[in-house]
Automatic annotation (TrEMBL):
Residue ranges of domain ATP-dependent DNA ligase family profile in the record: 327-466
InterPro entries: ATP-dep_DNA_ligase, DNA_ligae_ATP-dep_bac/arc, DNA_ligase_ATP-dep, DNA_ligase_ATP-dep_C, DNA_ligase_ATP-dep_cent, DNA_ligase_ATP-dep_CS, DNA_ligase_ATP-dep_N, DNA_ligase_N_sf
Active-site residue list: 249 (n6-amp-lysine intermediate)
Keyword list, A-Z: ATP-binding, Cell cycle, Cell division, DNA damage, DNA recombination, DNA repair, DNA replication, Ligase, Magnesium, Metal-binding, Nucleotide-binding
Protein name as catalogued: Probable DNA ligase
Residues reported in the UniProt entry to bind ATP: 247, 254, 269, 299, 339, 419, 425
Organism per entry: Candidatus Roizmanbacteria bacterium RIFCSPLOWO2_02_FULL_43_10
E.C. designation(s): 6.5.1.1
Role of this protein: DNA ligase that seals nicks in double-stranded DNA during DNA replication, DNA recombination and DNA repair.
First-tier enzyme category under EC: ligase
PROSITE patterns (alphabetical): DNA_LIGASE_A2, DNA_LIGASE_A3
Amino acid sequence: MIFATLATYFDAIESTSSRLAMTEKIAELFKETTPDEINKVVYMLQGRVTPPYVKADFGLGEKMIIKAVLKALNLNEKSFTKRFKTMGDIGLSTEKFKKEISIFHAHDESVKTIFNQLAALTKTAGTGSYGKKIGILADLVRTLDPLSTRYVVRIPAQTLRLGFSDMTILDALSWMLTGDKRLRKEIEAAYHVRPDLGYIAQMLKKEGLYGIAKIEPEVGTPIIMMRAQRLPSPEDIIEKLKTGIVEPKYDGFRLQCHIKKGHVTLFSRGLDDVTYMYPDVVEGIRKELKAESAIIEGEAIGFDPYSGSFLPFQETVQRKRKYDIDTKAKEIPLKLFVFELLYLNGKSLLHEPLTERIQLLKKHVSHKHDHFSKTILVSDEKTVNSVKDITLHFDEAIAKGLEGIMIKKKEGLYQPGARGWSWIKYKRSYSSKIEDTLDCLVMGFDRGKGKRAGFGIGAFLVGIYSEQSDTYKTVAKIGTGLSDMEWRTLEKRCTHIAASHKPALYDVDKLMSVDVWVQPEIVVEIKADEITRSPTHTAGRVLKSTKTGKALEVETPGFALRFPRLQRFREDKKPEDVTTVKEVSAMYKEQGQASH
């Protein structure tokens, strides 16, 4: 496939407002690729040249990209900058200039060639790399046709954002094979173990479902972390599980730790490589985990070496930084409470019951809770089989200043990426109305008025995830509760990912439309007083056709948050991790309100 063909697909996908039509178009693209091309096409669809957990920085800021375009097209900087400011898109600006310059003749470069050149940008470093990067990009702009330059410039600028999620690609891969989404479940299961869409696509192209069925955990490749369901009372938990294993729920940040022959890699919940942030955890794993190779999971929490107590999340989170890491590590040392062993010495443990995984974990990590000398500690666990047991452990956890407890199915398997009933969380806030928080996606914002005019933002729209439709549905538009600094931060982040039109993944009532739509990237934690019903919000809303069969009317109003306010930005979560419509529906029922 030549890159010009790929660019026409990019253009068609970008112009599509229907998620189904987008899925079919991506599937059509996949059908045209060879097994050696499809992985590269998948990466470039995501604006990348590697899977997300592999660090590959293009190292080209906006000014450098402009210099490359000026060099390629022999342009005046003033004229390009003027048009760029007017159009607001470096890719469209480059494309327009390229169209106006007729002396250049485009070459039919292959997808593989262009991919390799883009990958070269991420590998060029050291003395003279600045000029080399500009030269590589300038050659691409000079060589390609106008439409292709739009996208080849956007990729290193990290502004490609075609408006679909990883789940859309999984659907498209199924569609490629069968013409529908029937294989989504099997493909997604493999993706959760190996979240490399390029690799998954290539295996499917080469070997079909047989190929991805063989996928097992691999040290150095993060596994998408399992998630818990929530229930509001011990009675509900016992009714669901009968008996289980209870563990404290620490209020820190989750880490998945990979070790092989002494080399340690740490991954966050969002699959980011955060090894450099936590040198004390890395050293602790090297010294205290007795294994040739392993993948473990745990929760890192700050520890006060003077009082011997654990620190609240607000202090623990200070360890997530790019600078002064060693100084902060001494000031706020971490303890990693491990509760999962997913892989050990060449063998996957995903198909082993929880009790077996815990036994193996204890064998390979000392279970002695010496908080002062050890960094890696096995999480406390006890068997519970009554409401009284759960209440006792819950009260004990709260007394220690923890969030609550986790109750896990004794024979439960670790299900990567799943939010199943093998894990149930029970938090202190569940005992009151809706003091628990929701993780929501920022979908867009309205421009500010009055004092907010200076911020450029006056309110922002948030939504939750519908697993049934793979879309984001609205629950609140928030215009209060943020500090001036938070408003400015949100506006800056939103502007950077602004979309030209409402993304196909968003289901929004016209009354909730916003001035600026943004791509699905920013996750925020929202607190609200209550969940109510609203016909203008789409989360949980049911529509029915009128007698004419044309207009739709609301049969069941959607869920809405009463008095919503921002708690914090969730840098550790991806859009796919936000609270689901199903969860909010359960929370609403627990409030004891009658459904409409």
